[in-house]
Amino acid sequence: MSKIISIGTALPAFRHRQQDILQFMLDAYQPEGDDRRKITLLYERCGIEARYSVMPDYSVSLHERLFYPRTMDMEPFPSLEKRMEWYSMHAPALSVEAIRQCMDGYIDKGELTWLITVSCTGMSAPGLDINIMQQLQLSSAIQRSSVNFMGCYAAVHALKLADAICRSDENAKVLIVCTELCTLHFQKGNEMDNIASSLLFGDGAAAVLVTGDNCSADGLFIKGFHSEVALQGQQDMAWHLSGQGFLMRLSAYIPQLIRDGISPLLKNALETTGLKKDDITKWAIHPGGKKILETIQKELCLQKGDLTPSFNVLNDYGNMSSPTILFVLKEIMAQLNGKSERIFAAAFGPGLTMETLILEQ
Fold first, then answer.
1. pTM of whole model > 0.90?
2. Which residue blocks in 116-179 are alpha helix, DSSP H?
3. Where does the chain show beta strands of DSSP type E?
4. For 169-212, what is each residue's pLDDT tens digit?
5. Which of 7, 61, 181, 195 has an alpha carbon within 20 to 30 A of 326's alpha carbon?
6. What are the angstrom distances between the C-alpha of 157 and each of 40, 114, 152, 227, 314?
């Protein structure tokens, strides 16, 4: 049986208050009248206080920008090539910071047998995995894999891979690192998809260490996974490449799709491990947005404090895509006091894909 023994997180240097980001967006979109009031209201009610970015541009004056042109219309608007250059400059260091925190006091880098990198906001070959190997001076013989373009549920998918590896090799020690620089992909068109993604997403990284039975460290045992795809929502959450960065499709129907699917998803996931809802003591739900969390809380009849870690992460960092569920799990792990616990985790992404994970202490 495999277990999670440590989670480390990292954030880029620039913390932006949501109110400052709002002003940047209003300057970029130039909305008028009712549209301006609607965008302001969305920011005021989103449940996010601050987000992080690898660039200072979202809360500095026009003349202090480093990434976007110092022009009122932001022209020439950054190309995909420029966005990937910034990803290559910043993603490796952020990943290494999360990894160092994850491994500190738990494992020596020479003991690692696998490295799994996760990202949907930057790609190259050789890519993030090779950069991490170089910066950490990992063994050139370490096994590697990458999970790309799966979005917010990708960390759970990577944990599936790590679990399979550890079940086949009791001596395996698998390091997963999820790194997303979502703020590189801001689009200035005032379509609702752009407004919604600009409202929610921030940058961050999280690393998680998964080991086999031969590791003596305490941890959370992985009891099972379950995945479902709501195909009727495949056009409501999507992620596409363009010459000016990645384009997100994020419709207002997502909370409704999750509302319709979350109860059957929970039932089916619990059946795979022979558990009932009352057996779950902690809930780690991906904070894809305030409305999503409120919808799940209501639909599953959860208590007021059950989703506090998810609301806290949303408030402090926004939605960082794949690392976000690991930020939530890290907060939950910090609260554990040694007694028996069962954790139900769920994350959602393009497809509309719904991934779940059950952990036990």
1. yes
2. 128-136, 154-168
3. 3-10, 14-17, 50-53, 114-119, 143-148, 173-181, 203-211, 220-229, 237-242, 245-250, 282-285, 342-349, 353-360
4. 999 999 999 999 999 999 998 888 889 899 999 999 999 999 99
5. 195
6. 36, 15, 10, 9, 21
